[in-house]
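INFO  loader      accepted 1 record
INFO  loader      residues=250
INFO  predictor   begin
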Amino acid sequence: MQREIDEFRDIVDGEWAGGHMAGRRPTGEELTRALQVLITRQCVYSHTPGIGRTYDMVRAYPTFFERYFGSLGYRLVVSPRDQMVALTVPADEARYDGVFERLRKDETLVLLALRLLWEEALRAHEVGDGGVVETNTDDLVDRLVAVTQTPPPEETRLLDILRMFARHGALRLGERDRTRRVSTLAILPGIAILVPDSYVRDLLLWAVEAPPGTSSAAGDEGAEAVIDDANEPAGDEPANETKTEGEDDV
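INFO  predictor   done
INFO  writer      dumping tokens
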């Protein structure tokens, strides 16, 4: 990674041949933080709070980020239309980093329902600016029950799951109506990065074929519902990459 190290220094020193960032050039600390943010968040937007100038830095120095993450086995996706930058894993690439996150069954099914709601809105031309689909937790629960034919997680558990996926750029959780016990929900275009098409097919098959009596309550793990930091589904069938119109591979 000597080339990437040299480019890191050149960016900080203002000598990067690829151009300059508008305004103040990034410090070494800011550039390091941007790399860490993308690794931990995976999908970030121009409006993502608490990430400093990460989005702007990726847009200003795309080839540096592409080469850096490419050396780690990731692919950088830039979507100017959605004002999103994200990391994904090429479907045909083997993984050796050993960093995995095992999702519980209820987490996996909520992720599936979010992807289906976003896809249905896309097909119905009901997607708002920036690829955002506005909905609420009632609609999510209805879709979850319709797909899985099992009781949904109780409200507190559901909100915990949604907050977890919000940190990875899948959604934005809004205000809760205490009377109706429903929360507004904005599904973000990063859901297509986290849940590629082949993963949707695998999850639907798994949900339908789950053994009778299998609970979706907290504590049960989804058999085969394994997602690494780039959220590539585990299993024999590789995930197809999903790109919405306007996304660019840098």
